[in-house]
Design a protein that fits this description.
34% of the residues lie in helices and 21% in strands. It has 116 residues and is α+β, with helices and mostly antiparallel strands. It has a 4-stranded antiparallel beta sheet with strand order 2-3-1-4, covered by helices on one side. The relative contact order is 0.21.
Amino acid sequence: MGHIEKIRSTILVSQTASELKKFFSSIEPTPNLKNTASKAGWGVIEIIPENPHLPGIFAGVSKIIADEEISIRQAIGKDYELTENPRFIVVTESPIPDRLISKIKQINGIRDITIY
């Protein structure tokens, strides 16, 4: 079954199952600023967790950023149950200074980061 057929099948099932219908009708689209951040002078950190179930990864990253007095404009976590490559994307008011990269990499549960 191709992707389109799977989507159609999911829509049909979700329209007939009331709990699924409630769930899917409540989802709102969210723009991801990752690809446009550089045009606005913002920073982007993409965090790949070792284990996406481990709590505190985003808390650690946001604390390091806040300690530098940099505001977070957007934070998005790609759900580990819905994607093969879960990750967190953090868009900041200004680019992340190079000196913070090693601090962020030391946070428990982070496998890798990419700075854009």
